[in-house]
Write a structure and sequence with these properties.
41% helix, binds magnesium ion, six-stranded mixed β-sheet, Rossmann fold, alpha/beta, binds adenosine-5'-triphosphate
């Protein structure tokens, strides 16, 4: 097996309760002073009956209403040089959090990630030079053209001059952007075209590791194929190691050498697409697809009736929370 370029060891990342209004946080603190003021240790919290950790865990002060979201839960795996390593999982399963951790944008609560032997916390500056990331919500100077945006991005990596401009045109053209669009304002471009510019910006710096968070979401079928071809080319011609998150099972199947399936921040399976498909028996003589595996492993088999009743339950829960909040507002105001 080839050289390990990314090593993830026991990584945990939690976030505080999402969306809790500031007045509610203050009211809660006034009502119930924290016992020890410490954050709970996600690794020490209890397991669910099936032995897995719940994604949302109660704070250790036991008041029962302060919750933490464990976005990434003791993840461990290694990625080898030249792999296209897929990360699949339902919405909120921790894929983007993992990518943000790898790209030094977040600090792990526990555990360690090394990239080409460099620790993402201690050697963050070196890691930043070795990687580049494309996120699903890439940001640009919208009044400027793709050329101007990419020149700006390249300068941050110490690249400039005529050669860089030539490379920019080559990459953007390769990704299917018309010459005209290269020099027009970004704000006049479709989302798919903007996504291609984001990919070009990442490729330009010739990263050793490319972190692609849903790079083809929102692209039309032809653009998708163009981007997928470029991703393969980066691996084949430049030996780039790629981490790819996607909701497109066919894309994952086609591109990835191995795939990790996340659910509630845990890895529920990690193997080659072929081996993953073998995990789920075929039904009615139909070949098992990666989608079948995904649905089976993430416990979200599609049952329209169950989906409707779950949605109604969710709406009910939101409504009762809103009522509770307005009652608390009334009490505070009184
Ligand atoms: N900055 C943040 N603050 C609070 N909670 C966060 C933050 N970022 C992510 N989370 C929570 O962490 C969990 C994992 O989120 P993440 O974005 O990693 O999921 P994902 O697998 O990328 O989902 P998607 O498929 O929708 O992109 C979710 O419950 C999310 O709400
Ligand atoms: Mg995401």
């Amino acid at each position: 097996m080839s050289e390990i370029v990314i090593q993830v060891d026991g990584v945990v990342k939690s976030f505080g309760k999402q969306g809790e209004p500031i007045w509610k946080q203050i009211a809660r603190k006034l009502r119930k002073p924290a016992v020890n003021g410490c954050q709970p240790d996600p690794a020490e919290t209890s397991l669910t009956p099936n032995g897995r950790k719940p994604a949302v865990q109660e704070d250790s002060n036991g008041n029962g209403d302060q919750k933490q979201i464990v976005a990434v839960n003791r993840l461990s795996f290694a990625v080898h040089k030249g792999e296209i390593f897929g990360v699949l999982g339902p919405n909120g399963s921790g894929k983007s959090t993992l990518i943000r951790l790898m790209s030094t944008l977040l600090l792990p609560d526990k555990g360690q990630i090394t990239i080409l032997g460099y620790d993402i916390v201690k050697d963050s500056f070196t890691v930043q030079k070795l990687i580049n990331r494309v996120s699903v919500e890439a940001s640009f100077f919208k009044k400027l053209s793709p050329m101007e945006n990419l020149i700006y991005g390249a300068r941050l990596y110490g690249m400039e001059g005529r050669e860089t401009r030539k490379q920019i045109v080559t990459i953007l053209t390769r990704l299917g952007l018309e010459k005209r669009a290269i020099y027009g304002p970004m704000e006049e471009m479709s989302r798919g075209m903007q996504q291609k510019v984001a990919i070009a910006r990442a490729l330009l710096t010739r990263p050793r590791i490319l972190l692609l968070d849903e790079p083809t979401t929102g692209l039309d079928p032809r653009s998708k194929l163009e981007v997928q071809a470029v991703v393969r080319e980066m691996r084949d011609n430049f030996g780039v190691t790629i981490i790819l998150t996607t909701h497109d099972m066919v894309e994952a199947d086609k591109l990835c050498s191995r795939i990790a399936i996340l659910d509630h921040g845990d890895i529920v399976a990690l193997d080659t697409p072929e081996k993953l498909r073998e995990m789920v028996p075929s039904e009615n003589g139909r070949e098992t697809t990666l989608e079948d595996v995904f649905l089976a492993l993430t416990g979200r088999e599609f049952d329209p009736e169950a989906e409707v009743s779950e949605t109604l339950d969710d709406i009910g829960a939101v409504l009762s929370e809103v009522t509770e909040e307005s009652e608390e507002t009334a009490i505070l105001a009184a």
